[in-house]
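Sorry to interrupt, but I need a hand with the structure work. Could you write out one complete protein record for me, on any chain you like? Could you add the entry underneath, on a fresh line?
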Amino acid sequence: MINKILIANRGEIACRVIKTAKRLGIATVAAYSDADRDAMHVKMADEAMHIGPAPSAQSYLVIDKIIEAIKRTGADAVHPGYGFLSENRAFAERLQQEGVTFIGPPVGAIEAMGDKITSKKIAAEAGVSTVPGYMGLIADADEAVKISNDIGYPVMIKASAGGGGKGMRIAWNEAEAREGFQSSKNEAKSSFGDDRIFIEKFVDQPRHIEIQVLGDQHGNVVYLGERECSIQRRNQKVVEEAPSSFLDEGTRKAMGEQAVALAKAVGYFSAGTVEFIVNGKRNFYFLEMNTRLQVEHPVTELITGIDLVEQMIRVANGEKLAMTQADVKLNGWAMESRLYAEDPYRGFLPSIGRLARYRPPVEGHQPDGTVVRNDTGVYEGGEISMYYDPMIAKLCTWAPTRSKAIDAMANALDDFEVDGIGHNLPFLSAVMTHPRFYSGNITTAFIAEEWPRGFGGVEPEPDQTRFLTTVAVYAQLADESRKSQVSGTLANHPRKIGSQYVAGDGKFYWPVGVTFEGATVDVTFDDTASHIVTSDWKPGMSHGRFTVNGQTFGVKITKASTGWRLRWRGIDTVMQVMTPRLFELSKFMPVKQAADTSKLLLCPMPGVVTQVLVKEGDQVEAGQSLATVEAMKMENVLKAEKKAVVKSIKVQAGQSLSVDEIILEFA
């Protein structure tokens, strides 16, 4: 029986494993680096063992240091989480040699599925649908057309040595296949000096859908439904859901049975995921198998009621699965939003620093019958480090239907307060309220298609503007009341509060009339539309619940120099509320001019300068690389926006920079 588990990981997944282990009465050991000395997983575990400096290559990825921590603490099992050493064959073998239980799959399965060519070969032999293609040498255009006809259109014609989109064409018919073959061949020759071409099926309207499998060491394997992970940005999953709105029962069953067949073909046990690409006609093709627990596993747990970490521990302990395929039932719908320390207004660049405010929504069963779950590894006052993945939390919701799960997620995001760093909460809210996402009409290109120029925030619809105006007016009245008496209640106000205001967002303004009785405010617009509002919000609170005409929403609200900053449904705006006289006078206020930074290269994110690629006096061209900055395991190349001459360089390689710190100046 497993007595003590060392978690060879950090952050939210380490905390997640510790929660289940504690429930099962199993002792836990947290491994931590210098950067994680005060991390949540260290505080949660029964014991903690230091394993080295902050960079993961000197701590979490060093097998010898993990083994030393195991020996020093007497742990008899290791859960690897995901990432780091979770799919490292050498690590699993070393644990085996040391007589330590690996809470994961067998070494052979890790090795077989870790190689893309080998895994596809095994998948094909196991009867799993793979992307049709021809990998041999193609003599001429006639042969290319014949191969394309055999595969079926559309096809992707690719340069064997290709990259960056060069030597690549999509053909939808014979004429395009003939022309595309020759064009790709010519382009490949000039770009790579290698004109070899191969052809494979092009998956039209692709959706990323994966099957969760679970097996024991006695040959039993089941599938636990699917997860849709099509909402991706640069191949990074952002939103996941279970089940998929696109699959029918027949396709679900076929995908599940093929995933099980693949697992059995490699003698798989523990939790694993078989990933597929699915086209618009529900044809599905094997991508890869992840031989570990997936980041998005909570949505599967929410719709099946099965604790996957518990099952992994029980399987590693030699127990048989307590369920058969017939026992697996999918109940309701679950959504997961990945909260990242990435600034969506700055091209999703990483953000680091202290969490000045971190207030997740209340977890558990909600009054409306939905469920909120938040898997996290951070806390208010904690630091977001530059050394690791930028994930802050995984916010999940469950409801009986997809639409209600989306609504629950939108509400939970409205209630989630994060300040001190850049984060993608506004973007997640924008996805949840997007009509196309709500309809389920999504592909892996959803984000690129809907925000082709990047995310610039959400422009409020007219009814949303009125709602926010009403909230701002209520806040203004409450603030005026607070200033005039200690109690701050509207009901006992000793003097008459103004009944006429002008409210707006800096672009548009509306005259509004106000009446109130007790804590209820009636805001009337110039078209006589009335909005009755009540709230639990009081001046000084950063979040409040506002009920307007019977509908209740959570709004993040803070006092701004010129009004009230309101954040809701991806909208981030400052609403001003003024008396008519003050509004007239405000027209004479000068507009503050933004500082001219056109001759400066500023650091777009906190990070370390790894290279300065130019020197003073150099003339640079538009698009030329100037410097590289590393942050959160990503190297970012900063390029010139226009032709210029470098006047001075303010930094050197190895220097740590903050946001907007000057790197160099142009003449």
